[in-house]
Design goal:
The protein is mainly alpha-helical. The protein is 66% helix and 6% strand. The chain has five helices and two strands, in the order H-H-H-E-H-H-E. Strands 1-2 form a two-stranded antiparallel ribbon.
């Protein structure tokens, strides 16, 4: 069932377009040395945005010295806007019964988009 949902997600739920946007943003950010950590997070979000069904992430962030400042910078410059975008898409998809599973995936991406540093994406059980 997960492969079918991932295929439908890529075509109908906006997964392919969202993943492409994350990849392009990651490539632009990786042009500079300062942007590389943020570009890597965009690539992580792109992987989850392309095939979100069957994946989950742990929210137990290590209290690292680097993760907190990077998460704050990410949140202020991009995270809030990415979260609002995903929540808006989720609201639009939740209008129909068929769109509810896709809306839940956008909510999952919105939560990860707020503070992605220190979060590990893994296969769901």
């Amino acid at each position: 069932m997960r492969p079918i949902l991932n295929l439908l997600w890529a075509v109908l739920g906006g997964g392919l377009l969202t993943a492409l946007e994350y990849v392009l943003a990651g490539l632009v950010l990786c042009v500079t040395i300062i942007g590389i950590p943020f570009g890597v997070q965009c690539f992580k979000l792109a992987g989850l945005a392309l095939f979100p069904f069957g994946k989950d992430f742990n929210d137990s962030r290590p209290r690292g010295v680097v993760n907190l400042p990077f998460n704050i910078v990410w949140l202020l410059l991009a995270g809030i806007w990415i979260c609002i975008t995903h929540l808006t898409l989720a609201l639009g998809l939740a209008v129909s019964i068929i769109g509810i599973p896709f809306a839940l995936q956008h909510v999952k991406l919105a939560m990860l988009a707020l503070m992605p540093f220190g979060v590990q994406v893994r296969e769901a059980r």
